[in-house]
Fold this sequence. Notes:
This protein has one domain: Glutaredoxin. The protein is of the alpha+beta class. The chain has 2 helices and 4 strands, in the order βαβββα. Strands 2-1-3-4 form a 4-stranded mixed beta sheet, with helices on one face. Helix content is 25%, strand content 18%.
Amino acid sequence: MSFYDLHLFCCQNERPPEHPRPCCGLARGEAIRQRFAQELRRVGYDRPFRVNKAGCLDRCELGPCIVLYPEGVWYRITDIEQDIPRIVREHILQGHPVEALRLPNPQDPARDIP
Length: 114
């Protein structure tokens, strides 16, 4: 049994600008985390939840990214004001993962990277 019914981890890893790999921290990782918490409160989500900062989730080239538990669904956030309300509405409240925003499962070689 988990302490939280919903637990989101938002990558906020930061690398120097000259680093060859991108980083979610410089791609608005903290703004994404704050917007998820704000949206969950706005819709009146009333079960125990937590929206945590995370270090590198190692999906750097696909970020900024989040992972949502207990399902373990990974998302890429490209538009904070559209993607986050959609994930909250469709996935968290209605139980339907948003396929258009999902990151590929690294164990599934058949799934293309968006």
